[in-house]
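Objective 1.3, modelling of assemblies. Example input:
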Amino acid sequence: MDIAIRVEGLSKRYGGIPALKDVSFKVGRGQIFGYLGPNGAGKTTTIKILLDLINRDGGVVEVLGFDPMFDRREVLSRVGYTPELPSLPKFLNGIEFLILSARMSGLSYSEAKSRARYLLDLVGLSSDAKKKIGKYSKGMMQKLSIANALISSPELLILDEPTLGMDPIGRAEVRDIILEVNKMGVTVFLSSHLLGEVERICNHVALIRKGEIIFTGELNEMIKLAGGEIILVVTLDKPIPGLEDKLLKLDYVTRVTSDGNKYRIVTSGDEHRAEISKLISEAGGLILEMKTERLDLETAFIKLIGRGRRR
Amino acid sequence: MMEIFSLKPKATRFNAIKMLIIYEIKKNINKRLVIALVILSLLVAVGTVALINYILSEPTIPSFVKSIYGKYKWYIIMSMPGFFIALIGIAIGGGLFSSEYEDKSSYVIYTKPVDRLDIFVGKVLGGYTVIVAITLFFGVLAIALSYIVFRDIEGIWAAPIILLATIYSQILYYSLTYMFSQLIKKTTIATIIGVAIIIIVPFIDSVLAGISHTKGLEYLKYIVYISPTWAAGLPSYIANDLLKDLQLTSSELSDPYLASIVILIYFILTSAITVYNLLKSDLVID
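Predicted structure (tokens):
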């Protein structure tokens, strides 16, 4: 695998308090990588180290083949970044800021101007291009920050809660932008609390808890690791009284909920389908439909974070 | 979108520094404190013209007072707003680095392809460009006002040298405050320290110079020589040397060469400390 980000044994302390402990993960080129964890887990600290905004205490960090601590310019000329709740220079207007940002990245004035216009249009800020950033709302600031991250044609996009403060339409637009740039070969490193968003676009994830990585790998693997549980959604011809209790007596059934003739049975694996079908038939139920649902990312996240287990 | 990603820009040091200079200029000309101090300086310059006009036209004012203001009016108009112009240097220096931490704009500005040393160079040059422009403006304004109102530009040949000395001496308070701005990362505190230096140190200097003069304690003079406010008097020392019979400034302890060296030493020391801190410390604070 061609590597975009390599982090090995990364550690960082703030005044003696460890913020990152032996953090290791890899992000392959072309991936949309979700970096997940609760508040204060160390997500933003990791990102700051990747961007040489803060110094690390130990470990190895490589971004697109360069160490940000020693090759700052090489790294940052290839990376686009959107901070969590960005604070942009309030004395500039939207287009001035993007042009300045593009020029700092090495673009000519005319190229910077045309890109700035294009990106303002892309994020829906064309009509506010000449408005001072100080008068922008949080959502507008977030969109402008995304345009700023894209302006230098990055190979790697680092997004820290990019949709925070945005309405559902804005979130969908950002999601589309991420997917579109990813199609062009841009690697995306996404830190987000919105697990639904992550689930929709990320194929690989790392889970960090109290400064330690507790999982890194494919999204499906993480869900499997969270317990391997599945949900059988069974629709019967009629509700069967006492069926929940009978099902719960089975060792491999952990939870049963019902809504009329529809039952949701949480089991430890798909291999128990036949036994469950038999029990339902014996209880007098006729199965009209039986579907398997996997655990969602949010449930897996909560389980893994709660368990704090290391892979 | 495809077109955007087809052309990869090539970031250069020169370009990044140039853009940081522009950024810093725009930041400072939009700063309320800087605007307020420019207006105050303007009022002082115009007020000085009015004062000289009054002194020279009022028959009841003694002739020895008139003789002070009779010559080199452009220099008097130029030097009067000097305190406020120095405060502008302090206001710019005080927020040079700290404002990025406080406003969290460092997350955006410092994630552009710029080396940490270039951040220092770009920001310092940007802030200094504003100071130079303001100083030049007030210098030219003083000469223009002197000519328009009094038709007097006696000794004008010395103006470029004095103006250059003024621009050079502005480095002193500016570099002191930008050092505190980076070390403390608080604009208000860095600015207060700068203002405290400009107000308190001259008193200490005067006391030390007085004691040195009356008691004949030579070593006290040398303490005065290393004080920033003494060195900042460089333009007046040069004016004393160049403009004959200039009665407005004291020639005691006047030493333009030493003052120039002291300013340079302050600049080198404060810049070295700032660069070291910038290279070693985190570029964002929460």
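Chain A has two domains: 3-92+139-224, 229-294.
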